[in-house]
Amino acid sequence: MNKVILMGRLTRDPEVRYTQTNNTLVASFSLAVNRRFVAQGQERQADFFNIVAWSKLGEFCSKYFKKGQQVGIIGRLQTRTWDDDQGTKHYVTEVVAEEAYFADSKRDADSTFDNNFGSIPATSTGSDFEVTPSDDLPF
Question: What is the pTM for the complete model shown?
Fold first, then answer.
């Protein structure tokens, strides 16, 4: 089984390219994932993973993911090799994204996200229904 689940922060905005053969969109970015434990007296360390997202998922990542944003990625590990112009063989291991999620606890201020989400709404004047702390609720 080849399954990778990562949560981390983008180290740069996704970079978009298109394949030469069939013009398929591919987005690539790097994800910094904090290590679970911190050695006493040391700073938390992170591992950096190269992520590749194809087609519609790549389009989504390039449109909505930005540097510094925390995201969740589910995918698979893949290695590939190629020879450069000088004949040197190169190896790379990357995560091919199959699913991508927002994982930030809050959005940027310019977002339409309601920063009060999950909090008790303030009562408005003229409301027909109002609960006060002294009310007995049937649940």
Answer: 0.72
What does the pLDDT average to over 67-87?
Answer: 96
Q: Which CATH number fits domain 4-38+45-102: 2.40.50.140, 3.30.450.40, 3.40.50.300, 2.60.40.10?
A: 2.40.50.140
Burial readout 107-125 (b: 16 or more C-beta within 10 A, e: otherwise): eeeeeeeeeeeeeeeeeee
33 forms beta bridges with 47
One-letter amino acid identity for 133?
P
The domain segmentation of the chain, as residue ranges, is: 4-38+45-102
Cα separation, 113 vs 110, in Å, equals 9
Compute the distance between CA of residue 136 and CA of residue 120 in angstroms, rounded to an integer: 18
